[in-house]
Amino acid sequence: MVFRRRARRMRWLGCHRLGPIWKALLVFVAIAFTGQLLGFFNKSWMQPERPRSVFPLSSDDGHGSPMGPCRPHTHAMFLKTHKTASSTVLNMLYRFGEERSLRFALPLGYQFGYPLLFNAHRVKGYRGPRMVEFNIMGNHMRFNKPEVEKVMPADTFYFSIVRDPVELAESSYAYFKAVAPAFKRAKGLGDFANDPRRYYDPRLRNNHYARNLLWFDFGLDHNANYTAALARRGEAEIRKSFNLILVSEYFDQSMVLLRHALCWPLDAVVSFSLNARQPKPAAGGSWGSKANLGAALALTDDQRLKLREWNALDWHLYQAFNRTFWEEVERFGRARMEAEVALLRTRRDVLARVCLRDGGKPVEASRIRDKTIRPFQSGLVKILGYELHPSLDNSTRQACLRMIRPEIQYKDLLDAQQFPRAQPPPGAAVGAGGPPIRREPLAPKIGDQLGGNSIERDWDGTRLGRNVSLPVRERDGKDRFR
User: Fold this and answer.
1) How far apart are alpha carbons 87 and 309 in whole angstroms?
2) Which residues of 357-372 are buried (b: 16+ CB within 10 A; e: fewer)?
3) Using H for helix, E for strand and C for coil, what is the string for 436-457?
């Protein structure tokens, strides 16, 4: 016993003789050891891990249900119908193609000669069937399948999107009121719905926005009188040309079907709503206030029925492809669809928190500090955009920027990447340190005279120049315009 007490005393004296630095070290080691046992510290505290980017580096991102052995489809043609959330879909195509260095079939201006039927020579860099491989096509056009097939490969996946024609008419009225004579003359959408023929003249430019706009975009005669046989023939023609028709009112479910049809990763179809409008007219608009705007767009149940009758061909398409859409959902599986929609929405919320200021809410263009991502303004309502979170690292910022970059600026950027030596497209100006930015368009005109030649314009008045990429022999004696 005496021996043990003496041994403890000697050990204590040995420790006592140590210097203060050694004592502190021993105390730290003892505390750290105790902390490890009690779970106070963890590996990440002792050795911090490198932060993992919220955006995966590969297409196999691990999000969503397994896609199996399929390979991502890289030949896709999207018919961008008007006022159907199609700008958001086009952004997905732009992002997917840019990230994988795919080749876009781009218009010489900003649309493929719309509202004229599509012609292959309106694609920048097109030099004849099968001479150049294009991967993705998606800008506005009036569909013309034989001409599209000259541009796109045989295995191209064709898809489009439809919307209830009453909701489409409401959006079209707000957006195109200044350029569609039928809308311009009406006091409000309800006034137009009560007696459309009083305001509608099929001979006037841009009045196609006021009747059967979906039917028109699909390349069909939107002024034809409705018959059940005609509607079925048009439906059959569209079914023959397209692999999938999405439904705007069920956008998230549409994205799930699309991603599985194309074998794309989840992040490829996660999006923020682009080209959304503020429920208030722009400064100087004739409606004057939010209350006036609401009155201008207000519809009674009877007026809604009248709009469906006026747009009977569109209403037939919507009903037909809405049924087909839900048949596709049934084949996919309802429970599986609900799970994937929930996953898509969760992922969208995560990216919104990472990427966007103000909680991810869209803001007026005038509030966006970066002028290169301000959305183009058209119509009597304000088109909203987004601001990026200021503290993003460079790689995350670039990925977030792709998700919010407006359609016109994105098209200009891709154009500059594919044709670096070409001049900026008409109506564009290069911003300092950024992609070309479109100037305000000229007033809508059917054509100008320049040196005796008619100069074609898009619907918003943007002048279309000649396609200088085409050899003279391919023009067949005709001028092709940008």
Assistant:
1) 27
2) eeebebbbbeebeeeb
3) EEECCCCCCCCCEEECCEEECE
Task: List the structure tokens of 43.
Answer: 């590996």
- 223 in Cβ contact with 307 (< 8 Å): no
Spatial distance between the Cα atoms of 417 and 339, rounded to a whole number of angstroms: 38
- Sign of torsion over alpha carbons 415, 419, 425, 428: positive
Burial class, 283, CB count within 10 angstroms (exposed 0-12 / middle 13-18 / buried 19+): exposed
User: From start to end of 252-371, where are the E strands?
Assistant: 277-281, 363-364
Per-residue model confidence as pLDDT tens digits over 319-366: 999 999 999 999 999 999 999 999 999 999 999 888 888 767 776 666
Is residue 156 within 8 A of residue 77, CB to CB? The reply is yes
Closest CA to 138 of 165, 118, 167: 118
Q: Which residues neighbour 58 within 8 Å (Cβ) at sequence distance 6 or greater?
A: none
pLDDT tens digits, 179-229: 999 999 999 999 999 999 999 999 999 999 999 999 999 999 999 999 999
Q: With a cut of 50, say whether residue 437 has pLDDT above it.
A: no
The pTM of this model reads 0.74
How far apart, in Å, are the Cα atoms of 322 and each of 81, 275, 441? 16, 24, 36
